[in-house]
Write a structure and sequence with these properties.
Layout (H helix, E strand, L loop, with lengths): L12 E10 L6 H12 L5 E8 L4 E8 L2 H9 L1 H14 E11 L9
Antiparallel strand pairs: 1-3, 1-4, 2-3
Helix pairs in contact: 1-3
Protein name: ABM domain-containing protein
Pfam family, one: ABM
Organism: Streptomyces lavendofoliae
């Protein structure tokens, strides 16, 4: 999980929201998740991500990308494709992916 908020991005940019419910199978999940974090950082146009999981097991990860080409590059990565297949086979009961274009963005940070 990320322990920071992504801020200061100049719109327009894109978000990929991945919401999931995990299975009980954790075999190699953490290692693969760390590798995916390393790999996505290499994608030109990747801007950052935020991630959280509820005690009840719902996980939400929001990836920020400069443009649709960056999202397509991430989706086309062979290692990412392998991880997606493994996720469907072993790690997720269900998930959804939502892609959106951000037109406006603002935030707040206490002093």
């Amino acid at each position: 999980m990320s322990d920071h908020l992504v801020s200061g991005l100049e719109p327009p940019y894109y978000t990929v929201v991945f919401t999931s419910v995990r299975t009980e199978d954790d075999h190699a999940y953490a290692r693969t998740a760390r590798r995916m974090e390393e790999l996505v950082r290499e994608v030109p146009g990747f801007l950052g991500y935020e991630s959280a999981r509820t005690p009840g097991g719902i996980g939400i990860t929001v990836g920020y990308f400069r443009d649709e080409e960056a999202i397509a590059a991430w989706r086309a990565s062979a290692e990412h494709q392998d991880a997606m297949r493994r996720g469907r086979a072993d790690w997720y009961e269900r998930y959804s992916v939502h892609v959106g274009r951000v037109e406006r963005s603002h935030g707040f940070e206490r002093g």
